[in-house]
Amino acid sequence: MKNNLKQRILTSLILILILFLMTISTYFLGYFLIIAGIISLIEFFNMNLIIFKKNKVIQLFNNILFITYIFIFSSAFIVFSSYLHLKILLFTILLSCVASDIGGFIIGKFLKGPKLIKISPNKTITGAIGSLVFSAAFILFLFYYLTENINYYVLIIGLATSVGSQIGDLFFSFLKRKSNLKDTGNFLPGHGGVLDRIDGILLGVPVGFGSIILIY
Fold first, then answer.
1. What is the C-alpha to C-alpha distance for residues 21 and 149, in angstroms, rounded to an integer?
2. Which are the contacts of 103, defined by CB distance < 8 A and separation ≥ 6?
3. Under the phi-then-psi rule, with left for phi > 0, alpha for psi from -120 to 50, and beta for the rest, what region is 151?
4. Can you spell out the DSSP letters for 164-187?
5. How far apart are CA 154 and CA 142, in angstroms?
6. pLDDT for 36-70, tens place per residue?
């Protein structure tokens, strides 16, 4: 247990360093997205193969669909990051997804309470609320820090980002449950696979960015 915790902490520190490098270097961002994208595809292919092992057509369709999504997501992230103001928005939303994940873990762990949904036994209603609060509070604080103004519309962006992030997390939890896997992989010691870390981000970032377009 202690060894797993040490691995989790060490991996988290490395991921924070990677995130920092992504913010300061577009080239590093591109390389990271390529590597993470390839590993994510492999992990998804593995789950898809287990779930639909008797139906090659559905396997192929799902694989093509996920490849297309990862390609569009990564390409858009790289292109938008070429513009400073869009880069700031993207990483703000990305960090809001992280805050949502942290809030869900902390509040759900300490307050526990009723389960949120059967497909993910560890998720609780209190954890889901904690995710919403942490995400909204983080984005409100960051907006105030950057602009020295309070705009409560950003709370909607934070809430939308958290909802998207949680749905993405639940979707991949459903796939893991269907394929009888605890984690999507073992690439990240103490955390599981790459998809275990970015599942919420894959939907949370597009939803959060879309909410900004709708509001502003």
1. 28
2. 127, 130, 131, 132, 133, 134, 135, 162
3. beta
4. HHHHHHHHHHHHHHHTT-SSS-SS
5. 10
6. 999 999 999 999 999 999 899 999 999 999 999 99
Which residue has 């036994």 as its token pair?
121
For residue 190, give the DSSP letter: T
Count other Cβ atoms within 10 Å, centred on residue 41: 17
Question: Which alpha helices (H) appear in the chain, and where do they start and end?
Answer: 2-24, 26-51, 56-80, 84-111, 125-147, 153-178, 194-215
Single pTM value for the model: 0.91
Place of tokens 């275990």: 196
> CA-CA distance, 205 to 92, in Å (whole number)?
9
Burial 16-34 (b: 16+ CB within 10 A, else e): eeeeeebbeeeeebbebbe
Return the DSSP state at 151. -
Q: Specify the amino acid at residue 59.
A: Q
CA–CA gap between residue 130 and residue 124 (Å, rounded): 10
